[in-house]
């Protein structure tokens, strides 16, 4: 047990390792390295910069004669504008997205991790066939089953409800696949120890497997939350009533048919990214080490 | 029809069973149901509107609905590009709207999706623009009530043409010349929208051709149209055409922000343009293409339909009759208080002060002199086929004859499905 | 945790047996436990994924316009219609081009970023965050930024401003297919959105390579840099690379959002799903033809994945675990 834990800790990204090729370690090489990373990072940040620039500018400036790198007069008032809009309840849509995002994440982790563990670790004659059945769903484009799926969910009476927004998305073949890969590589010794303690599969799973896999759960949680937050077409048709809109649906409603309100669109987009950045900054340090423990490793 | 509803019913009960399973097998309800109260009461209706851009339109639609005493009408206001996917997906379910706005489409009639509204329109039929009645009629039955007519034509900055000593173009050739002379390093000559889709039908008509003829046979594959496409290609590659503007043709931004001197747009945007540009604004129809041509204007618009598959067809029809037949005050408000649209009711259009003078009056004249209306048999598949022609031949530079031949195949197959 | 006890005390024979004979718990009743763990997921998968898939397949044999409960059986007509449809078959070609560009580029870029970040001694977390950040952005938001500010065709677009410094005229990036600049717009958007995620996968894999391997290589006289990369790092990343390429392939096949948002009314640059949307699922509402196209596409994805698995040994990697 202790061995694995230390092994996992080895992979903590923040911890300095012997840098590769570091023996050359010249100041020149290191400068070049940071220069390359710096340039790449700048390029990656350009779209965010554009987003922020537009969010704090006036419309004439966004569409001005020349590109201006910084708004000459920063419009702080733009921040509250999405929340003052009477036609779209932006605040409510943020709340909906948060509720849906959190429940979606918790539910997906619960359902898919159990299934992944079952597929990876519990001996059953037809486990392979079941696994291929799961793998198959990855190949079917979701956009294609979209309409039948929607008709089905609406026959359940789940339109305009959190149920309708959350439950159909819980059964992700992809997440189940990732969990299976991870549990395949989970050290058997730990479960042996659980057996000595007299635990069944269920008990061993909750008392030993899950507590030792929190990194991986955090990694999957990050990805699941991001995907849930960003999904658009499903919430669009499920949320018939504006009170059931998620933030992506609200965003799209700013891009209305006529007279585009640029700064409002960009500001609302920027605000909609904030919770994700918080989630990400909070969870990201587990991301690499969590994924380092999946089956898809070197 | 009865077979269809039968199978609907049995499927529905199947899903109920499945729902029970789902609830027992996985999570029970999580989170509240924040939707509308589950149906049953006969006095609540749901209507779908696409999001109009003009300020005040959404409030207006809701205000009309509130004034109606016999039912509680709730409105879904759906952003432009999402309107079709949401409308059509919902129409397949029990959560379908009871009434919705759309364009006349023969498949909606053939598939039994929209209800026959002849009985409510018949008494006032003569007061409607007859072209609007015709475009909603299949086999003598009228399936939708036109709310607004939206003529589409060119808007131009008078000052820029005057400065360059140019006349308003009378032919497509002249439009090309004018565009070339107006183009500077800051301002392009003309804007037709990023995809050119808006000018396809106007160009076909301006070339003296049509989409379908009176016998529902293809009428667009003519030498005039081929010539027009070649001219359009020339314009597209000339560097005088504004491309990839941030807002599309339906938005007045390109003209107002000075990105272009001439823009194809709709009458709805006239108030915004007038506010921004004052008197520095003129209009002209799509100029004639070739010698046999004639200037043209596309009279688009929106109509109200009743969902025939819903369970409140009569209530919905009552509401449509109340608002779009009886309440002339609201109809005029809807057409003229926000953007400019032409009321399809002759009596309203004639008494409307706002349309009697100045640029709006010119717009009305273009509408009546050169206007072409929707043909209900010209379906989405056919529209898409002609869009492909423009994509292939104008934007990509392919041979017009070849792409029109390809279009013929699609349209032919579609016509065969519809009319046998 | 209350669910644990509830489910354990469920009145089913094997469940009762397991607390009674705890020592046999892990070994015994495999079948029951298998279904206990996978059951909830599989039931959901059946209802919300397999029922719609089955429904789609059923629809593909019917004339289904403006309805998903059709009654006119047409056999393979819809399949014939889709396979004879130049635009659809052309879209399958487009996909191949797109996959051929985007899969190797994303692979190389994310591996490159991972290698760079992995060598950093300070500010590593900062740079890793910067590269991962775009993953949080939705395709809708990215398309908006790309279309309205970066690559619009007018003078105040950033791309046009930058090339303007070098005296180059404004380019219509999206409207004009000749030259096909639209690929630059789409590929850059997708790279920006995706690379960070795959970089994390590679970073994780790089950190799993035992240091001893490098030490041994150094003793054997391998020069640091290209040689170690070629003979140590790359082979060690084989499993990750295989998985990344599989995921990228599936993602490329299912590409929809950025194409849908960035290109409209074109006959080029359309991946199969966009083509299906326009031919069948959009305004046209022909669910029969749309479903037939979907089935064809799914079969193709399965074929390519199997082929890729055969070549790169995805299956083998798993079984050896």
From TrEMBL, chain A:
One of its GO terms (biological process) is transmembrane transport. The keyword Repeat does not apply. Residues 94-283 form the ABC transmembrane type-1 domain. InterPro entries: MetI-like, MetI-like_sf. GO terms for cellular component: plasma membrane. It is a multi-pass membrane protein. SUPFAM superfamilies: MetI-like (SSF161098). Residues 1-24 are annotated as: Disordered. The chain crosses the membrane at residues 33-52, 98-119, 131-159, 165-183, 204-226, 262-283. It comes from the Bacteria. Gene3D superfamilies: MetI-like. Keywords: Cell membrane, Membrane, Transmembrane, Transmembrane helix, Transport. It is found in: Cell membrane. Belongs to the binding-protein-dependent transport system permease family. This is Sugar ABC transporter permease. It comes from Streptomyces phaeofaciens. The lineage of its organism: Bacteria, Bacillati, Actinomycetota, Actinomycetes, Kitasatosporales.
UniProtKB/TrEMBL annotation, chain B:
The keyword Signal applies. PANTHER family: ARABINOSE-BINDING PROTEIN-RELATED, DIACETYLCHITOBIOSE BINDING PROTEIN DASA. Residues 1-28 form the signal peptide. It comes from the Bacteria. Gene3D superfamilies: Periplasmic binding protein-like II. This is Sugar ABC transporter substrate-binding protein. InterPro entries: Bact_solute-bd_prot1, SBP, TAT_signal. Keywords: Signal. Transmembrane segments: none annotated.
UniProtKB/TrEMBL annotation, chain C:
The chain crosses the membrane at residues 32-53, 91-118, 125-146, 181-206, 237-256, 287-307. Residues 92-308 form the ABC transmembrane type-1 domain. Residues 1-24 are annotated as: Disordered. Coiled coil: none annotated. Residues 9-20 have a biased composition (Low complexity). It comes from the Bacteria. Keywords: Cell membrane, Membrane, Transmembrane, Transmembrane helix, Transport. It is a multi-pass membrane protein. It is found in: Cell membrane. GO terms for biological process: transmembrane transport. GO terms for cellular component: plasma membrane. PANTHER family: ABC TRANSPORTER PERMEASE PROTEIN (PTHR30193), INNER MEMBRANE ABC TRANSPORTER PERMEASE PROTEIN YCJO (PTHR30193:SF37). Belongs to the binding-protein-dependent transport system permease family. This is Sugar ABC transporter permease.
